[in-house]
């Protein structure tokens, strides 16, 4: 309902025929490049999750984590934020003989690492073009990014605070801090590289989609503007962030003079790209269910 309300609000100033006209003129080669970028980003995400889980002594092959990650991505397309997909990942790993609570920490760490990397990439981009957005908007975004990054550093440091042991309700926070430290004990270069590569590939997917529709801005512009819109989709108010992402992108890109209809078309295409990339997860899920059904014993008639 909220998703439809946000779209209705956006479409008050944008006519559907404008969006359709823009979509018909889109360059298919660049849209294909965007699809490949997003697929690569998701694949590297599965690899980073594998590295984190291996450092936490969960084992399993890359193929296992790849299948689980794509299944989770598919379920995320129809649920608020990523709760449903993360729950599926927990169940997949727990099904290999691990406690769900322990697995949950690994999934949370993967999510926290991803957000931290996106914030860091956004901060780096600001260093190349600090005057892109109006000063008040730019400062607000930078403030939120800095708070997020400092929170990440704070979580890492909490494991050293002995006085937290006196507060049982905060034990989960300290455990999370300890596990985060453990998750980065080895493979640090691979973890850092993959963590930055994931949002970079996703932003290049946005860049290719925007250029396919005529939004000829440089990559730095996309890396500055798009992450704040992605951050907002974390708020569980719409399905898979639809509407929230579109509203944020239209608002931010309009600040630099971009055509609203084109920005809206770009965001819609990006959402459809995510759905297309997640389809292997749907196939994997169906094949898994079919396998379980085939293993059930057939009752014989007496």
Mean pLDDT across residues = 86
Strand proportion, as a percent range, falls in under 5%
What characterizes the major β-sheet? none
Shape descriptor reads globular
Spans of at least 5 consecutive residues with low confidence: 298-302
Indicate the radius of gyration in whole angstroms.
21 Å
Please count the helical segments. Answer: 12
- Tally of strands: 0
Helix content: over 70%
Order of helices and strands: HHHHHHHHHHHH
Distance between the termini: 51 Å
Coarse structural class: mainly alpha
Topology:
Elements: H1 2-10, H2 16-24, H3 28-55, H4 62-76, H5 83-94, H6 100-128, H7 135-157, H8 171-183, H9 188-213, H10 219-232, H11 244-254, H12 260-295
Helix pairs in contact: 1-11, 2-12, 3-4, 3-6, 3-9, 3-12, 4-5, 4-12, 5-6, 6-7, 6-8, 6-9, 6-10, 9-10, 9-12, 10-11, 11-12
Report on the architecture of this protein.
This protein is mainly alpha-helical. Helices cover 75% and strands 0% of the residues. The protein contains twelve helices and no strands. It has helices at 2-10, 16-24, 28-55, 62-76, 83-94, 100-128, 135-157, 171-183, 188-213, 219-232, 244-254, 260-295. The protein is globular, with a radius of gyration of 21 Å.
Task: Give a brief outline of the structure.
The chain contains 12 helices and no strands. With 302 residues, it is mostly helical.
